[in-house]
């Protein structure tokens, strides 16, 4: 196995097929998928409507390029624009979340005629040169030679540094004061702030209620745009809302919204939504060779239709709520578990050593043990010590129960090993 591949597990797992919330490996073992690819399988593995849409479109024409119209692309763009909550919205399709964020940066910096961007500490926005330049954690950002001038804002990492022991209100006030101070000390104008409503790779951490709304007020007064990165939090995953930004909606919709991952159910779709005046500020913004490719658009449309018709957002709220309650109950007496947190079907379990320090070893061990017991989960966090649970949104109560029982056994063993 090539060493440079960033694979989970000591012995890489080769998956051959999936169905519903399950996948199978090359040895025929079945796993309950509690990570949905990386939140890419949004509805279910091998969803018949998506498979049919892909096969039919592949049989007609594979690619037309964005020089020509494609019925699925137009319809999907219209539906996403209507769902986005952004007035007079326009949609531009890309092939990944990274490219979506790059496009959002291109638009925001051009519209505001500035290359200054605010990003959150502990953020993750992708792997391109500009996306790593707004990613606020050095382990995910291999260079600091960004084409952008990025200023990192507090609010992303609650427990680090001098903010560690503040109340929610105190933390929010301190972060807002810091933001204002930073803006007062900054030469030139800032184009935009980009933020994940819940930090994904950063360990499923959310700011306290009211923090983003307070930020928006400060930024809106200065004409600074708000970019919401919904690559992980979109499509109802957080249960209570269709988009993560809606949990912080006191000051209305964002100026730009980026999406990817789940909408294609595994097909490569990304995109950016923006008000028409922002989207149209570039003359040359209309070409992306593979963005909006007909096969992916057919898949996205079938997948979105299924999601809405089966109210999978409601399912994420109900089943996600039960799962988090169950996990909290199971882990209540486990010193290895610092916190179980999340919204909808986006749940993080933060692991610590007996002295309270982060436990990346515990998280790696938990992944291995879970796999042995037929459960696939993810990990992340600033210190790589958070288990990430984000199954397809069609998860059943019985499957949630099954996964929680496996995690109880896994965490018991982790506790025994690292304590
Ligand atoms: N933004 C967020 C919040 C992400 O979690 C990711 C990927 O994990 C990206 C952007 C980049 O998306 P992609 O891997 O499709 O380029």
From TrEMBL:
* Cleavable signal peptide: none
The EC number(s) this enzyme carries: 2.6.1.44
Q: Name one GO molecular function term.
A: alanine-glyoxylate transaminase activity
The answer to keyword Transferase applying to this record is: yes
Tell me the keywords, alphabetical order: Aminotransferase, Pyridoxal phosphate, Transferase
Asked if the keyword Transferase belongs to this entry, the reply reads: yes
Q: Which cofactor does it need?
A: pyridoxal 5'-phosphate
Q: Subunit composition?
A: Homotetramer.
What's the family? Belongs to the class-III pyridoxal-phosphate-dependent aminotransferase family.
For this entry, the protein name equals alanine--glyoxylate transaminase
User: Which organism's genome codes for this protein?
Assistant: Streptomyces klenkii
């Amino acid at each position: 196995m090539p060493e440079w591949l960033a694979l989970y597990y000591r012995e890489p797992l080769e998956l051959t097929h999936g169905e519903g919330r399950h996948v199978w490996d090359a040895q025929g073992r079945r796993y309950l998928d509690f990570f949905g690819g990386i939140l890419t399988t949004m509805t279910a593995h091998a969803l018949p409507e998506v498979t049919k849409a892909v096969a039919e479109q592949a049989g007609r024409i594979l690619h037309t390029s964005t020089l020509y119209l494609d019925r699925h692309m137009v319809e999907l763009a219209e539906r996403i624009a209507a769902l986005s909550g952004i007035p007079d919205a326009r949609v531009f399709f890309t092939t990944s979340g990274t490219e979506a964020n790059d496009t959002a940066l291109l638009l925001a910096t051009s519209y505001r005629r500035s290359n200054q961007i605010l990003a959150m500490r502990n953020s993750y926005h992708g792997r391109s040169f500009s996306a790593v330049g707004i990613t606020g954690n050095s382990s995910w950002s291999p260079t600091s030679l960004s084409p952008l001038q990025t200023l990192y804002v507090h609010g992303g990492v609650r427990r680090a540094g001098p903010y560690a022991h503040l109340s929610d209100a105190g933390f929010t006030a301190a972060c807002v004061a810091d933001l204002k101070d930073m803006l007062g000390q900054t030469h030139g104008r800032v184009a935009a702030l980009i933020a994940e409503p819940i930090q994904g790779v950063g360990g499923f951490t959310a700011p306290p209620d009211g923090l983003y709304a307070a930020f928006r007020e400060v930024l809106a007064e200065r004409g600074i745009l708000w970019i919401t990165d919904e690559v992980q939090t979109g499509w109802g995953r957080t249960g209570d809302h269709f988009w993560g930004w809606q949990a912080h909606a006191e000051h209305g919709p964002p100026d730009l919204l980026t999406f990817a991952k789940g909408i294609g159910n595994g097909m490569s779709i990304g995109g950016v939504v923006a008000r028409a005046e922002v989207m149209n500020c570039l003359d040359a913004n209309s070409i992306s060779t593979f963005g909006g490719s007909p096969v992916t658009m057919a898949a996205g449309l079938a997948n979105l239709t299924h999601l809405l018709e089966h109210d999978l957002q409601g399912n994420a709220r109900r089943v996600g709520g039960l799962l988090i309650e169950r996990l909290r109950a199971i882990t209540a007496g486990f010193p290895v578990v610092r916190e179980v947190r999340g919204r909808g079907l986006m749940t993080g379990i933060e692991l610590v050593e007996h002295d309270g320090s982060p436990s990346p070893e515990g998280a790696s061990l938990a992944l291995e043990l879970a796999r042995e017991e037929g459960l696939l989960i993810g990990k992340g966090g600033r210190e790589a010590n958070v288990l990430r649970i984000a199954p397809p949104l069609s998860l059943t109560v019985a499957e949630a129960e099954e996964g929680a029982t496996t995690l109880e056994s896994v965490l018991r063993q982790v506790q025994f090993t690292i304590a």
